[in-house]
Amino acid sequence: MTISKYSFGIGDRFAHEGVNQLKALIAAERRFGVHFTPVWNKSNREHTIIGTEPASTRAEADAAVKALGYSDAYFCDADHINLSNVDKFIDACDFFTIDVADYIGKTGTMEERYLPAVKEAGKIYRHIAERKGSGNFVTEVSMDEVAVAQTPDEVKYILTELAREKVPLQTFAPKFTGRFNKGVDYVGDLAQFDREFEEDLKVIAWAVKELGLPANLKLSIHSGSDKFSIYPIMGRLIRKYDAGIHVKTAGTTWLEEIIGLSLADPEALSLAKKIYRIALTRMDELTVPYATVIDVDKSKLPDPGVVDGWDAHTFAKTLRHDESEPLYNPSFRQLIHVSFKVAAELKDEYIPALERSADVIGREIEANIGDRHVKLLFA
Question: Residue 142 and residue 300: Cα distance in Å, rounded?
Answer without folding.
Answer: 33
